[in-house]
Amino acid sequence: MDCMKKLQVAIIGLGRLGSACAQELLDEDAMALCGIVRRVESMGPLPGRLRHMPVAGHVRDLPAIDVALVCVPANTVLGVSRELLQARVPIVECAAIEGAALAAHYAELDDVARKHRTAAVVGAGWDPGVLQLFTRAFEMLIPRGQNELHRHPGIRLHHSAAVAHIPGVKGALAGQFRGANGAMQRYVYVEIRDGTDFAQVRATIADDPLFADEETQVFQVDSLSSLEAEEGQGMALERRSSPASGVHASLLLEARFELTALTARVMLHAARRIPALPHGAHRFSLGI
Ligand SMILES: NC(=O)c1ccc[n+]([C@@H]2O[C@H](COP(=O)([O-])OP(=O)(O)OC[C@H]3O[C@@H](n4cnc5c(N)ncnc54)[C@H](OP(=O)(O)O)[C@@H]3O)[C@@H](O)[C@H]2O)c1
């Protein structure tokens, strides 16, 4: 694709998320990183592939941009975004704000974007962002039921000898944490040998009296060592049908990931859609 036709993307704030977005943009075909806005105190040579990138203290000092990725702290996102939209620069943001404050934040961005005839994608991250899409899909599939969301960022895993001796199991890591309902949950991650039936291993663990005292979730992983090395986030979203609904259904999303890297992917996905969007602020969805 001709370089001139690439969507010109600026990054506002080169912290964890801004840096992850910058790295992703360097490898993009349809978009180009055209500059970075930084605070005065952060100015200085940039490392590696970013070293020739234009850096400015204000977006007006950058070459013409098609969309700005707002990567500043959550409490400054509204002010920064408002200023960009007033200058008719479309934005993508993902401020981690909750509840009524988040609704007010989106309403204000929608007002400003409409008034200045510009588009914004809001909530383009993991949470807020893609997590709400999973939640909605679960609720659509099981309309009468209950959600439970457990976050286990610092889950401590230990090697489980009880599981490691099961035939076909190379090794196992287990961890416990308290779920949203206060009950203890156990997570068991198993690496199995080629040709082993994982369902059989899971059934053996479920039948083991050692694991009978707590609810135990068993997951298969490709490599225990990479799991141990991961410093990412962890969470499990579970939805179960209520007994009164007469059906027995449950859905479970078990996730381990690096929050910043994943959020950068969502920001870029949203940025790609900006040229096609009508004026106003649009909540992130896969179909925006
Ligand atoms: N929705 C999600 O799932 C999700 C996930 C992760 C992050 N986020 C959001 O993404 C944004 C960035 O997060 P982050 O983890 O990248 O934060 P961070 O590492 O603290 O980086 C923020 C950057 O913003 C710039 N900045 C501008 N004004 C600032 C100020 N007053 N104080 C400090 N820094 C300021 C700085 O860049 P310079 O030094 O270049 O000026 C700083 O490095 C936040 O709004 C956060 O809520 C959302």
TrEMBL record:
Q: Which Gene3D superfamilies match?
A: Dihydrodipicolinate Reductase, domain 2, NAD(P)-binding Rossmann-like Domain
Domain of life here?
A: Bacteria
Q: What is this protein called?
A: Oxidoreductase
Q: What is the lineage of its organism?
A: Bacteria, Pseudomonadati, Pseudomonadota, Betaproteobacteria, Burkholderiales
